[in-house]
Amino acid sequence: MTDADRAFVTGYQQLSLPAARLLVRLYTRKGPTFRLGKLNYAEIPDLAAAVAELADIKLLDTNPELSAGEVAQLLTLADLRQLDWVPNPKRPKTEIQTELDDWDDIRCASDWGLNEPLIQPQHWLTLRRLQLLYFGNEHQSLTDFVLSDLGLFQYENYPLGKANRWFEHGEELDQHLLIGELKSAVFEARENSDVEALIALAEPLLQTVWIGSAKDRAARLANRLGFRLEQWGEPELALQLFQTNDQPPARERRCRIHFKAERFVAANEELDAIRSEPKDATEARFLTRFAPKLAKKLKLDIEPITVPVLIEQTHCWPQGDGSVEQLVCSRLTDAYWLENLLPLGVFGLIHWRWIFQPVAGAFHHPFQQAPADLYEPDFLARRGLSRSQLYRELSTETAREYLLENWDAKFGRQNPFVHWGALEKDLVLRAFDALAWEQWLAIFKHLWLDLKRHRAGFPDLFQFTETGGRFIEVKGPGDRLQDNQRDWLAVFEQAGIAAEVWYIRYE
């Protein structure tokens, strides 16, 4: 923590309860500036005393510097019309706001001639740093405490301590904050189609020596920025960004850029690296599609591609009031529209103990739906397991026991694969019993190959049949199979799991 961070914490711990309550209220409201006269909290009976206490130790500014546009945002049209410096005050507020936003004046709140004081909490950077230190991300906030206290979100019990902390160095924390700022800047430049701004943003990503947990985040942002620069006619700069890491799709993009520049040997070197060890499903799919194209340029032998045989049906029915999936369900017996939720629920319940097994760095605060390393390729290895070892311990009997035990003991607790509100215990058990254990193993092993991407793409419907069950992927007019859906259908074909694609046309 920085000196400013420590000073903030020390000051906060010395506050009276009403002052602490006010500061937390202000931090969790949309600000950063507030009209004091608009604040009214039952749990803070003496608002003026709380404000004075916070201002005394510099946690609150009672006369902040603001632009004319910022002042206008805080006031109503009636308030603005009372100020003699507002030009043409009889206009609509949107017009006044637009003009004042262009003013360069920055003044203290008292110099704008307002009838009531404005206040502004300080130390926003410290708050961001503390939030990042605690959660390891910038999207969780104090709201998580409230939702947990209300019982709306329940989390698994796992040990916490210094051995599990996410950050080891202050520099690492600063790099995460920098990445957050760069992400916002990339998004803004992309929205404004500002190529020059995107080019400028490549420099800090390329020049910074990223450390610790910031490396992966920086790599993901470099790939995102590289892809946009490649689209907008800057392939060589994009190549530099893709060369900073091997996270998908970096190797694929490097291969494509070399190919487009007719550097076919360099492209083939990238493809050989993917061929020796694809990092995820997207790389494996790219390999099968791009290898013939590159082999043709290099006059190499082209390996044949195996295409799964799909069982397809086309039906022409009157259009119903609901979705096309609901229409198909209404014409079938004992069919359920749950898409990914049913097989993922079975997976999450059976594998609960491994998902929430405490290892260093996996759990570092009490509001985690999943371990921090869930989608890392070495997830099982970090827990001393391989897929083959894992399933030597499991049989259909023990898996069913885990499923039942965890449903009863863990009901309502957050799990990245179990959506309690969409599932019923009897339905999950019936689905588990409907498929052979070897078939579930095929599903589980495919999931482990790439948990992040393979968790999507399951067929829409599951129907119980006399021989077990079948999956049905439903395609309405104009819809077509996606890559991840084809992958799952190929897994089902190899495992002997009944699966069909139904194309629905409306009469």
Rg: 29 Å
Spatial arrangement of strands, main beta sheet: 6-10-9-8-7
| Anisotropy-based shape | globular
Measured distance between first and last alpha carbons: 66 Å
Low-confidence sequence ranges: none
Question: What is the average per-residue confidence, as pLDDT, rounded to a whole number?
Answer: 93
Helix count equals 24
The quaternary structure here is: single chain
Strand content: 5-15%
**SS-based class:** alpha+beta
Number of strands: 10
Portion of residues within helices: 40-55%
Q: How does the SSE layout of this entry go?
A:
Elements (H helix, E strand, L loop, with lengths): L2 H11 L3 H12 L5 E2 L11 H10 L3 E2 L3 E3 H7 L2 H4 L12 H9 L4 E3 L9 E4 L2 H12 L7 H7 L20 H22 L3 H13 L6 H18 L3 H8 L7 H11 L3 H13 L4 H18 L13 E6 L6 H7 L4 E3 L3 H10 L1 H4 L31 H7 L2 H15 L14 H10 L2 H13 L1 H4 L6 E5 L2 E8 L7 H13 L2 E9 L1
Helix pairs in contact: 2-3, 4-6, 7-9, 9-10, 9-11, 10-11, 11-12, 12-13, 13-14, 14-15, 17-21, 22-24
